[in-house]
């Protein structure tokens, strides 16, 4: 039975991330490595997450935290937002993505701009910066003609809404 790859490519796992995770092939681009790393989290292939790290990144690798996140999360999907360089002929690349998951029923999103480097023909994850999305408003929006929430007694448009 064939199974779609967790990375969202639309390909079957065996023709997508499995060759990279199993070590039978090297990811040809930074994005392919990033997708394979996401699939490794989903499939609990924790060794791949370690071997795909740049040497200087290994010292900060916390195997227990990686294992816990991989096993506790219900992985909901991957969205690639943008890539900069990271093609087969490049030596550096950046991939911005969101990994969506749920823990204990709470849906969360990890958005990151990841940095990759190719050494001796092989791509490695170097580090990443968290990227925040637009602010999420939790309270209802105040209408222009409603009383100002600051308590002044004035309409919002004549007070804090100016």
From TrEMBL:
Question: What Gene3D superfamilies does the record tag this protein with?
Answer: 3.10.450.50
Q: Pfam families from the xrefs?
A: SEC-C, YchJ_M-like
Domain called YchJ-like middle NTF2-like: residue spans: 29-128
Where on the tree of life does the source sit, at the highest rank?
Bacteria
Q: Which family does it belong to?
A: Belongs to the UPF0225 family.
Which PANTHER family does the UniProt record give?
ADENYLATE CYCLASE-ASSOCIATED CAP C-TERMINAL DOMAIN-CONTAINING PROTEIN, UPF0225 PROTEIN SCO1677
What's the protein called, per UniProt?
Answer: UPF0225 protein SYK_16660
């Amino acid at each position: 039975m064939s199974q779609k790859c967790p990375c969202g490519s639309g390909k079957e796992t065996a023709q997508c991330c499995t060759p990279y995770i199993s070590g039978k092939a090297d990811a040809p681009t930074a994005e392919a490595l990033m997708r394979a790393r996401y699939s490794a989290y989903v499939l609990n292939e924790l060794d791949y997450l370690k071997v795909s790290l740049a040497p200087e990144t290994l010292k900060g690798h916390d195997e227990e935290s990686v294992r816990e996140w991989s096993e506790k999360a219900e992985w909901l999907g991957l969205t690639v937002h943008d890539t900069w360089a990271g093609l087969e002929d490049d030596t550096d690349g950046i991939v911005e993505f969101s990994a969506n998951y749920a823990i204990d029923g709470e849906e969360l999103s990890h958005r990151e701009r990841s940095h990759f480097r190719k050494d001796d023909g092989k791509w490695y994850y170097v580090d990443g910066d968290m990227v925040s999305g637009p602010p999420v408003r939790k309270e209802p929006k105040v209408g222009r003609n409603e009383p100002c929430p600051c308590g002044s007694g004035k309409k919002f448009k004549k007070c804090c809404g100016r």
